[in-house]
Amino acid sequence: MEADRTQGGRAWSIRRLDKLVSADIDALSGVLIDCVDGDGSLGFLRPLERGRARAFWEGVALAVQGGERAILVAEDERGLCGSVQLVLGLPENQPHRADVTKLMVHRRARRLGLGAALVRAAESTALGCGRDLLVLDAVTGGDAARLYARLGWVRVGDIPGFALTPRGVRCGTTVFYRDLSGR
After folding, report:
1. Alpha carbon distance 81, 72 (integer Å)
2. Among 101, 82, 93, which residue's Cα sits nearest to residue 42?
3. Which of 2, 34, 53, 171 has the fewest CB atoms lying closer than 10 Å?
4. Helix axes 22-37, 50-65, angle to 10 degrees
5. Hey, what domains does the chain have and what are their CATH numbers?
6. Does this model's pTM top 0.90?
7. pLDDT tens digits for the chain (183 residues)?
8. How many CB atoms lie under 10 A from the CB of residue 38?
9. What is the rounded CA–CA span in Å between residue 173 and residue 140?
10. How far apart are the first and last CA of the chain?
11. How far apart are CA 183 and CA 181, in angstroms?
């Protein structure tokens, strides 16, 4: 899957990676660090050291190689600038479902429609993997939650005090799902 766009005079593209090589891990580590520095709630506290970020992506690389995850990346003229993952390795009674996780866009590439494009690409990839029910969670009231609502994801509910922000403050999460079976 590849998508190319130009918006605001800036070109970017989205593609699925079948494996992550060292250069991808380095670039994605930079995106993750930037997002956490910008208070993106991605499961990490500030400051996020490069070694921890690399270790995370090395684990993702193994999961992608093993077919447990699918990863889509966004690139602009300066390199990788975003990603989203589908968790495919779920229990055997959920072969129709995937979890969407770790949607991230580098601060330099925001407000160009890239987040929405990554979500749409994840939906298409899920269908290509035989998954028609997607589930995710996002910080209650945050940018990502507003994005998912705008894209037609169904809000299930909120869980207060679910996690910590990168600054260590408790925040709630909102659970969403998307049924692609009638698409």
Report:
1. 11
2. 101
3. 2
4. 130
5. 2-89+96-130 (3.40.630.30)
6. yes
7. 455 666 566 799 999 999 999 999 999 999 999 999 999 999 999 999 999 999 999 999 999 999 999 999 999 999 999 999 999 999 999 999 999 999 999 999 999 999 999 999 999 999 999 999 999 999 999 999 999 999 999 999 999 999 999 999 999 999 999 999 987
8. 14
9. 5
10. 18
11. 6
Residue pair 72/115 in contact (Cβ under 8 Å)? The answer is no
Could you say which DSSP state residue 145 is in?
A: H
Question: Rounded CA gap, 175 and 99, in Å?
Answer: 11
φ, ψ for residue 64, nearest 5 deg:
-65, -45
What is the residue type of 121? Answer: A
The set of long-range contacts for 51-55, using a CB threshold of 8 Å and a minimum separation of 24, is 53/28, 53/29, 54/25, 54/26, 54/29
